[in-house]
Structures are given as structure tokens and as C-alpha cells.
Amino acid sequence: MADPGSRPVTVSDVQQLVKRKDEIEAQIKAYYELLGQKGVGMTEPLVDAEDFPRGDIDIYEVRTARHNIICLQNDHKALMKQVEEALHQLHAREKEKRARDEAEALAEAMSQSQPQAFARVNAVTPGSPASISGLQVDDEIVEFGSVNINNFQNLQNIATVVQHSEG
């Protein structure tokens, strides 16, 4: 696997690490089986009661198997740390992506739910009905009677609504 800082961790990277972990575990198991066939484990003495090498086992083979098990267990521990870090990076990136997607979806939903303005107020005459109703300069008009963003063509549309609403 490449250095985690050089590029993002991928699922393929994690799968390769897990494959390597499985290989190491298989090797450890094979060495333990070898020790089991010899009738010794990792801690049994290799000398008899009189401190002579046991004659019923191949001392060199047992010591080599024990050494290889210890080395492989260290490699396994380091590899598991890499797997853990890779999974953390992978899930963190997915969490960030999900949060970003949710934020974009929320922003899109908010922009779609807010009505679009079709006009902006440039001036309000004091004492006019617009002034009395609280209309202010720079207010945006999103709907005026039946006129909205979908059917607005020009200010004549608003004048027509006002003429029909007099009184």
C-alpha cells in the first residue's frame, strides 16, 4: 500500500492489507501445527531434566518455528494497525462525502423551496398605499396578486392587477 499521505486510501488497498493479513495468519497457523506435531509449543523447555538437549525433537526446527511465529506475530500486529488506520481513513472520507452530499441536497432543497423574486422595489412614495402597507426600498417581489416568476413579463402585468383591484 502507498504512503497514506500520498493518496487517498481505497477499498482495494484495504482488501490487499486484509489479504496479506490472512497470509500471515496462515503462516503462523502452519508453524503452530509444526510445533504441535513435535509435541512442543512456544514455552515448553527444549532440554531434559539434566539440561541436555531433548533427543525426541529437532531443536533447530523448533527454535526456527518459534522465532518465525514471533516475527510473524509482530508483522501481524503492525499490519493490523495499518488496516485499522486505512479503515478509519476510508470511513472518515465516506462520512465527509455523505455530510457534503447532505449539505448540497439541503441547499438545493432550500433554494427550490424559496420563491424566486421577479422584481425589486426602487422607490416608495411616502403616504402611498405601498408605503402604508410597509413596502420598503430594495424589497423583492415574489408575488403580486396573480403575478409571479412564472407568468411575469413586464410591469404592465402588475398595473393590470392594480387596476382590477382598485377600491
Attribute tags:
two-stranded antiparallel ribbon, Nas2_N, 58% helix, 167 residues, 26S proteasome non-ATPase regulatory subunit 9, single chain, 2 domains, coiled coil, mainly alpha, 4 strands
Give a written overview of the molecule:
The chain starts with 10 loop residues before the first helix and ends with a helix. The mean pLDDT is 88. It contains 4 helices and 4 strands, in the order ααβαβββα. The protein is rod-shaped, with a radius of gyration of 39 Å. Helix 1 (11-38) packs antiparallel against helix 2 (59-113). The protein has 167 residues and is mainly α. It folds into 2 domains: 11-113; 119-165, no CATH class. The protein has helices at 11-38, 59-113, 129-132, 155-164, and strands at residues 119-120, 140-141, 143-144, 147-148. The strands form 2 sheets. Strands 1-2 form a two-stranded antiparallel sheet. It has a two-stranded antiparallel sheet with strand order 3-4. InterPro entries: Nas2_N (IPR040815), PDZ_6 (IPR041489), PDZ_sf (IPR036034), PSMD9 (IPR035269). Residues 14-92 form the Nas2 N-terminal domain. This is 26S proteasome non-ATPase regulatory subunit 9. One of its GO terms (biological process) is proteasome regulatory particle assembly. Residues 121-164 form the PDZ domain.
